[in-house]
Amino acid sequence: MQEHHVVVIGGGFAGLQLVNGLKGAPVRITLIDRRNHHLFQPLLYQVATTLLSTSEIAWPIRSLYRDRPEVTTLLAEVTGIDRQAKTVLLKGGESIGYDTLVLATGATHAYFGHDEWEPVAPGLKTLEDATTIRRRVLLAFEQAEMETDPAVREALLTFVIVGAGPTGVELAGIISELARVTLPPEFRHIDTRTTKVILVEAGPRVLSSFAEDLSAYAQKTLEKLGVEVRLGHAVTACTAEGVTMGDTFVPCRTIVWAAGVQASPAATWLGAPADRAGRVVVDPALRAPGEEDIFVAGDTAMVIWESGKPVPGIAPAAKQQGAYVAKVIRARLAGRPAPAPFRYRHQGSLATIGKSAAIIDFGWLKLRGWLAWWIWGIAHIYFLIGTRSRLAVALSWVWIYMSRQHSARLITQKETMREE
Ligand SMILES: Cc1cc2nc3c(=O)[nH]c(=O)nc-3n(C[C@H](O)[C@H](O)[C@H](O)COP(=O)(O)OP(=O)(O)OC[C@H]3O[C@@H](n4cnc5c(N)ncnc54)[C@H](O)[C@@H]3O)c2cc1C
């Protein structure tokens, strides 16, 4: 008899946890991803802000399963699903049959119907996004050093971050520290300490998913780092000249988009109901509606938490869902009763502000300041894959603290936007 074929789309947190959870099960697994690497997105902002290099936070997916002969890794982009034929359709025309399918294709940033802003206001989701942002930030300082027109120089030294969730706060804090601490001795014609970093948020506070006192602390810490926080300001236009918020125009050459979430098109592939962010509304066993053999996990699934809120789009939630689906598949293959419905266990929320402060909300315990930063740092090192990455990241951080230098300040790839 042919072994049961599980096809997993997406080698992110949910997909990998699922494949790990199926170790030893009587299955053959095909893991498809359009990128050749698994990415530790929580530290992506550190690549964008020159603290870490790309290889410290990403790993070739193929290498993770070198000792699992039943796992086949394919570098391919999925474009659709034929539920009747039980096949996954790939860009290029190929198709792959499945017995069980798991969609774990994640989410990306959303421009609230203004996709035309993306070229001037890149979001942060992939390594390419991170190196694009890094290049733009570093080029802005380089161009300001050569610029003779004071208005253009000021625009070059103005950085606008849209969205004050964890990513926006993290980016703003580090860019401000870069300008105020690391760069000043290296430039001769500009004072990089005059750099403006503006964090724009449509809502009433930064880090709105945290308790109010923690979000107030985060705002105060950002302001101490030199970040200008503008709350209650919705962005109405982004262009190569600057950002408009209602009646206010801020001339700037570097905009980073850290607002909005849009799930992958998994719901469209399945013709399944989706929420406003495009996430597939799954049943309590994380199955697509009406589908016995199709599961959806991670950021691309919408599942209700006990409190009635949707499970948050964070890495621990994606991992728990991946592990749960593995359990369901194992039980099914062994002829055992299905496990109890998926139940999300929230372990806490963490965010950093600059290089020495963080906030942590475990529910039962709230922490802020340097102690929170240490816990944040240790947790993130623990969750990296492999000893080499853990040592490399720990060493980079120690070096940055001792030297006040950022170790990955490289301008790479061609910058087209500014070369016209
Ligand atoms: C900048 C940033 C910072 C974050 N910080 C934190 C944090 O501090 N803490 C935290 O808990 N969470 C954080 N998150 C959220 C966390 O990273 C996500 O919740 C988590 O990655 C979701 O896992 P996933 O497996 O659902 O999707 P992902 O990890 O995004 O994986 C999806 C995979 O699917 C692949 N894929 C997508 N479409 C296709 C296709 N058509 N064909 C083939 N492959 C495809 C992608 O290449 C990707 O590898 C952050 C996210 C971002 C972007």
Spatial arrangement of strands, main beta sheet = 5-2-1-9-20
By CATH reckoning, the class of the domain at 115-259 would read Alpha Beta
Ligands, deduplicated: flavin-adenine dinucleotide
- Main beta-sheet strand count, sense and barrel state: 5 strands, parallel
Radius of gyration: 22 Å
The average pLDDT is 94
Ranges where pLDDT stays below 50 over 5 or more residues in a row are: 416-420
Helix content: 25-40%
Strand percentage lies at 15-25%
Protein structure class: alpha/beta
List the total number of helices. 11
CATH fold group of the domain at 115-259: FAD/NAD(P)-binding domain
Shape category: elongated
Going by CATH, the architecture of the domain at 115-259 would be 3-Layer(bba) Sandwich
Would you kindly provide a brief summary of this structure?
This protein is α/β, with parallel strands linked by helices and 420 residues long. 31% of the residues lie in helices and 23% in strands. The protein is elongated and about 75 Å long.
